[in-house]
Structure formats: C-alpha cells, structure tokens
From TrEMBL:
The lineage of its organism: Bacteria, Bacillati, Actinomycetota, Actinomycetes, Kitasatosporales. This is D-aminoacylase. Residues 50-517 form the Amidohydrolase domain. Keywords: Hydrolase. It is an enzyme of class 3 (hydrolase). The keyword Ion transport does not apply. The keyword Hydrolase applies. Its EC number is 3.5.1.-. It comes from the Bacteria. GO terms for molecular function: hydrolase activity. CDD domains: D-aminoacylase (cd01297). Gene3D superfamilies: Metal-dependent hydrolases. It comes from Streptomyces solicathayae.
Amino acid sequence: MIDLVLRDAEVVDGSGAPSYRADVAVDDGRIVSIVKEAAAAGCQRPTGTRVLDTEGLALSPGFIDMHAHSDLALLRDPDHSAKAAQGVTLEVLGQDGLSYAPVDDRTLAEVRRAITGWNGDGSDIDFDWRTVGEYLDRLDRGIAVNAAYLIPQGTVRMYAVGWEDRPATEAELNRMRQLVSEGMEQGAVGMSSGLTYTPGMYAPDSELAELCKVVAGYDGYYCPHHRSYGAGALQAYEEMVALTHEAGCALHLAHATMNFGVNEGRAPELLALLDKALDQGADITLDTYPYTPGSTTLAAMLPSWAHEGGPEALLTRLRDDATAERIRHHLEELGSDGCHGVPIAWDTIEISGVSNKALTPHIGKTIADSAHLRNETPWVTARRLLLDDDRGSTILHHVGHEENVRTIMRHRVHTGGSDGILQGAKPHPRAYGTFPKYLGTYARDEGVLTLEECVAHLTSRPAARLRLPDRGLIKEGYKADLVLFDPRTVAAGSTYDSPRTTPQGIPHVLVDGRFVIEDGERTDVLAGRAIRRTAG
C-alpha cells in the first residue's frame, strides 16, 4: 500500500511549464506515481494508506533557500517554523565566509564571538564537531528541514592565517587548500566568502582563485558576498566573474543586488555584465530576497583595518578616543569598505537586535533617532552600542531600491534566498517571509513573474546549481520534498513591526514524504538531513 496520495492537486512542477491537475503518490520518501487529470480520464486512481484531498491547492517541489543563516538555529530550535512554514525544505548554510566548520578550538572560539549577532553566542550549543563532515553528521541526527553546507573561506583563513591583513604565506595557502579539499571531500557543495567581513576580506583575488580551483575540482561552486554592493558594486561583480573564470569555477552571487543611492536604477547594467559572461559560456547563478533593506551587524559597517587582530583588538581600538575618531572619519566622511565605500547615513541604520538586554530601548530605532533622543551625535551612540553590546548588535540597513529588486528577480539565472538572520528582537521579515512574498506579492499580485516561473526560481534552478539529481521537480523517482499552498491566499505574514509572524496559505509541507507542516501547524517530525555533494 502506498504511503500517501495527494488527490486532485494543481501541480506546478518546478520546470516552468504550465501547471496541470494530477494525483501524486508518495511512498518511502519519493514520488512514485503521477496520474494527470485522473478524475476526468476515468482511469484507475492511485490509492494509499492516506489520501489527502488537495483540490484548490497548488503542489510544488519544496523551496530551496540558497542563502540561509540557520547554522545554529537548526540545532537549537527543532521547530524551525521560520523556514518550514514558508515551504522551505532545504537551506544552504555556511554563508558569507563565516561559520563553524572547519575549526580548531581557537578558531571556534573566535568565530563564535565574531558572528554572535548572526547566530547567538552558541552557549546553548554542544559544539561536538570540528570538521565539515562532523558538522554534517550532527545535522544528520535530525533537523526540521534539509541543509547543504558551503565551506566558509573567512573561517578557513582565520584557521590558517589568523586575523592579520596580509597575503598568506605559501605554507598557509597550502593549509587553506587542504582545509577546502577536506571539506569538499566530506560533503560541502562549495565555498562562500564574505569580502566585506574580516578576516576573509583580507584575502587578495589570487588567494581566492587558488581556493576556487580546489572547489572546481569537486564540481562545486563559489558563493561570494563580494567586496562592494555600493560605490564599487559593478566593479566588484566584474571581479568575481573574472576570478572564477580564471579558476574554472562555477559562480553563485549571494544576495545579488545594487544598493545605496549611487546604484539606483542600475540593475540593468549588472544584468548586462552577467549576460555577456553567460553568453560566453560562464556558469553563473545568483540569489536575491524580495525586500529593499539589508541586514547584518553594526560592527560590519566599520573599516576593515579596525578589525585587524580580531574582536578584542576592535574593542581596544573603539575604547581609544583617537582611534575611535579615525574610525568615525572613515565611516562618516570617506566611506569605509565595511559600508561598501559609501559614507554612512545613520538614519538608514536601524537596530534590530542586541545581545545586552540593557540596550533593548535602541531596538526599532535608527542610530540617528537614538542619538537625537540622547542629545548626542550618532557616532557617540553607535560607539557605545558597539562597546556595550560586545559588537553583537544587528541592524536593518535601509539602502535598497524596489526597481532594482524587481529587475534582478526576473533574470534567467535568478534563484531565491532569504539571507534570514533569526537572532534579535526585531529581525528582518525576510527570515519568515521571503518565499510566500515571492508567490503572493510578486507572482500573484504584481505579475512580475508568473506562478510557474516563480516556482522554478525557487526549486529547480537552485537544485541544478546544487547538482542535486533528484530534487527540485515533481517527477517520478524524485524525493518527496513538497509544498501545498493556496495560490489565491498565500502571503507573507511577517512585517517590519511583527517580523516573526508565519505565512498564510501554506497548509502542508513535506520533507522526505513526511509532514513537517500539516493543516498549517508544525508537527514534531524531524525528517531533514545533511545534503552532501553528489558530483565531481
């Protein structure tokens, strides 16, 4: 007897082709039968232990979040409704060059402190792994949704070189090559960088190219948060295209957008650059989230030289009045590399979360507003936050442009990624709303994409980038990672005021053929596992 039959579903199969009506049978975690227009044809309909009437609902492959920061959240929060309720059945972790494997004891302590704002300090986590393989094994004990992993180049550099702003020695470069090779052997799908984050940003292009050659040898891809999304954005994109061309490595551009006033309306220039490379045979994809503000840590805005030596060295510089004034000068007048070469506008920096509860009154206010309330300059407020919160404050950065967002999401190699940071009292709503917002706002309401196109962007395209041979489509033999949603009502519930509200119109989500969301409620099923590299 078949485990489950989804009766009379409107199948949006992930290919981009027109939807069709069918009964879809699931057994032992896979799609075993698709009977199109079963009722009208009068043929033998599949039966199963359970038959779910899905009339009025669309059935699609599970959504793949190509840019997730759930590296610890998946371990600490078995519920994980932030993603499961959106229909996400696979997340790609290890983003922006900073995560928790591979590490030794020193590096683990340093990276935990460096990205407290993204993932918490980890005091509630048993870090019983050090290698990429051990981390993936930890995920295999059972998580809410599946997860793939990118080797974080910044962590690798931290491990082999430390926090110094200098080229690696040949011995250090060989050690980094070894760490990347070991991580790929153990199942990583590629490598990420955060080239506005230290210490990864200290790597010259030649060093990055050498590591990308290792990744290419395993048929993986390079996923850079590149060196600028502001004043030097187009040049930064060009740099990544040229670097990966030299290395012979596939390229996936993280949260690919054009931000700040200098880039308003310039998305077509980016797409022309990518189209030229694609037409010449380059293997390039990108992801975006359907919102205008970005999200990161307040400390990330500072110039890279201020971070050299690690977190404690940064705090020492901030405590010194003369050095702090130099930091302010770079931020407010020159435009720091951490702020993408653009002089910082404090009225665009909204505090979304703090580690020190005494600083809670700042949440939901811009630095400019908090400074005004305290009758002080914005830099005085920002400096105090950085020190009193041990660099742990997270921000929303209101520097995006809706026209650019819409233009880029139409592109032929576009995929969806939430870039969702789940920490903080008031996180970015994209963490809870990215995928239903694509379906509801941009497909149904705005018509920027058709429903079929939209689903393809969120399913088969990312699956192809990840080299997954049996995911991303509704097809016999494929894994039964599935979403049932109502195309008439699906919508993001999360807002800037209530960012942790789950979506509406997504009643059922299956991972490995098992319901993780059923009738709109999270079950206790932990069917997710690590998805390891399968090619190369």
